[in-house]
Amino acid sequence: MEFRSLLLLTIMGFLIVEPGFGEIADLAMNDWLKTQMETIMNIGEKLKYVEKYQNDIEALEARLNGTVEELTEQKAEVTRLKKENEDMQTRLNATEEEIDKLKQSARNAAPKIAFSASLSNSGEIYKGPSTEKTLIFKRVFSNTGDGYNQDTGIFTAPVNGLYYFNFNTYGYNTHVIGALLMKNGAHQISTYDNVSTDGSDSSSNAAVLKLVAGDTVCMQLWENGRVFDNLNGHTTFSGFLLFTV
Ligand SMILES: *[C@@H]1O[C@H](CO)[C@@H](O)[C@H](O)[C@H]1NC(C)=O
Ligand SMILES: *[C@@H]1O[C@H](CO)[C@@H](O)[C@H](O)[C@H]1NC(C)=O
Ligand SMILES: *[C@@H]1O[C@H](CO)[C@@H](O)[C@H](O)[C@H]1NC(C)=O
């Protein structure tokens, strides 16, 4: 810039010379130089523009650099968010899988089936020997799922499964004490205490039976057997579903 101004001034210095000083040919030369000077001045003006544009371009470049920087940051942010989203997706998938499993196990969950009853629900019962051997447990503590019928003394399996049964018999030794656990009318397990002289006896037994829906389970007296119960709950019958099969 400084150099260019100096150059212009020098050229102008040469030109501001009285025409009469030189020869006539010098006048033509002078005109030529004038034209050259104008051209050079024009170039100077144009250079100013070029400089101005250069500044503008630099400013634009700075802005562009800023934009590029911002874009780079945003790209990094997008990458980070993408990764986060993927992680969330993975966790979501795992959670959904877990929920499916829970739903499945809820569907497979065993229905709630359990009962427990005692022979006498009032006063004293001394039952047997009789032809009506099925014991009807009248004092029902619980009967979830309504498998046990307190009018007949018969438990009917609501679903296929493995069931646990437990019973206790109590009586006096003038007779055989005990009862049989019957499945569909067939003897499974029993308690038994023969006639003796020691007053009274109590015994219990239990079994896990595989039943299909509709199978029946009940307690029956032995031939000539007798059992006793009162509100103390000596003679009892209980059962529940362990799990379905
Ligand atoms: C713009 O960025 C380039 C490359 O990083 C650099 O060479 C240049 O000096 C920067 N320009 C400005 C005006 O910051
Ligand atoms: C999540 O599950 C969907 C649908 O099953 C699947 O398209 C996607 O690839 C899984 N994503 C991950 C991260 O496991
Ligand atoms: C029970 O006792 C009676 C009389 O003592 C006897 O005849 C009978 O064989 C006994 N029964 C059993 C199964 O022990």
Explain this structure.
There is one protein chain. With 245 residues, this protein is of the alpha+beta class. It has two domains: 105 residues; 131 residues, Jelly Rolls (Sandwich), CATH 2.60.120.40. The strands form three sheets. It has a five-stranded antiparallel beta sheet, with no helix packed on it. The protein has a five-stranded antiparallel beta sheet with strand order 4-5-10-7-8, with no helix packed on it. Helix 1 packs antiparallel against helix 2. One 2-acetamido-2-deoxy-beta-D-glucopyranose (NAG) binds next to helix 2. Pfam families: C1q (PF00386). It comes from Scomber scombrus (Atlantic mackerel).
Offer a concise description of the structure:
With 245 residues, this protein is an alpha+beta fold. The chain has helices spanning 2-15, 24-108; strands at 114-118, 125-127, 139-144, 148-149, 154-156, 161-172, 179-183, 186-190, 200-211, 216-221, 227-229, 236-244. A hairpin with a 2-residue loop joins strand 7 and strand 8.
List the helices and strands and how they pair.
Blueprint: H1 2-15, H2 24-108, E1 114-118, E2 125-127, E3 139-144, E4 148-149, E5 154-156, E6 161-172, E7 179-183, E8 186-190, E9 200-211, E10 216-221, E11 227-229, E12 236-244
Antiparallel strand pairs: 1-3, 1-12, 2-11, 4-5, 5-10, 6-9, 6-12, 7-8, 7-10
Helix pairs in contact: 1-2
Bound molecules: 2-acetamido-2-deoxy-beta-D-glucopyranose (3 copies).
The site of one 2-acetamido-2-deoxy-beta-D-glucopyranose has 4 residues, from helix 2.
Pfam families: C1q (PF00386)
GO cellular component, one term: extracellular region
Coiled coil: 43-105
